[in-house]
Specification:
- The protein is mainly alpha-helical and about 140 residues long.
- The chain contains six helices and no strands.
- Helix 4 runs antiparallel to helix 5.
- The longest helix is centred in the middle third of the chain and has 31 residues.
Length: about 140
Amino acid sequence: MAYSPEEINDFKNSIINGLINGRSLLSMEKAKETPSRATIFNWLNPEHDSFDEVFLNNYTRAREESGEYSAELVEDVALKVQSGELTPEQARVMIDAYKWTAGVRKPKKFGKTLDLTSGGDKLQSAPTAIRIDIVKPNED
């Protein structure tokens, strides 16, 4: 199905807004709010005629920022336990899922491994041997 340029722009904006607000591409596709996954990935593919670099940049940023949304949901779940809306067991499952999602989407901030020393640069390996020379001090 061919879409008008205005419809395509609306779809792209809807996708970005959905991702930022924690929605998955799958949920938007199932709700028939977006074109097919193949069409969306064509917009993201630099080798395709319908590639849109601005959309790719916004999509990438929205995916990353959705990690912030997932992290914020952890606090929301904790408040629901506090108010009695959720049991601790229910909350544990939800929090684990939100933490995993946040870690995958924004690994530099929420991932399991944090690089606190190198700024992302590869660290040099430690020497495998150390040589110590003991010398007699000068008697001057």
